[in-house]
# Entry
Amino acid sequence: MLDDRRPRHETERHRRGLLLVVSSPSGAGKSTIARKLIEADADIAMSVSTTTRPPRPGEIDGVDYRFVDVAAFKRMVAEDAFLEWAHVFDNRYGTPRAPVEVMLADGRDVLFDIDWQGAQQLYQQAAGDVVRVFILPPSMAELSRRLHARATDAEEVIQRRMQRAVAEIGHWDGYDYVLVNDDVERCFAQVRLILRAERLRRHRQSGLIGLTRSLMRG
Ligand code: 5GP
# Structure
């Protein structure tokens, strides 16, 4: 099992937080992987998006999304309250800016379950801090099976999601990592490996100059 606890010498240095974007066509398993990651790793927190889409059965306001009407969403856009926002299907989705800033200031990484438009906008604003992961389904037949098994959407909605999946997959080359989710545990382990390696990148370890200087002084 991968151990994400950091060795002592790493926690003593200050590390620059990263923004981990995980995108996929809906039904490719991204939400499951995001949930598992938040449960497994105390150093990363989820960005809760705001949306104008109605809640699905079982979804909780403030946990899965903040559900608002179109007028409230437009007000937030006018107040520049979103780091990014986009139209997805017939609804608007956005990432509130303030909670992300709090999480980063708190020394935590932030996980975003957003689409390719959001990934692109975040990257434009904070390229060096953003790590983009795209998750593909193993096949379109399997994607269809998963969307039907979820049984929360009407057939017409599922068909639209399948069409949108094709368009979404076309954006695979806007990501740093591309994974195929043919086994959720394996895919989850790969996401954790990516996170672990990205945390060790030189530019995210801001105390290295002092450490290396003192090492060289002997
Ligand atoms: P769903 O309605 O299935 O929860 O989400 C539909 C799509 O919207 C998913 O691809 C999800 O990643 C994307 N999404 C959710 N929140 C945001 C957001 O804040 N910004 C953007 N750009 N996309 C989002």
Residues 184-199 form the longest helix (16 residues). The pocket of guanosine-5'-monophosphate is lined by residues 23, 26, 49, 53, 84, 86, 88, 93-95, 113-115, 117-118 (CB under 6 Å).
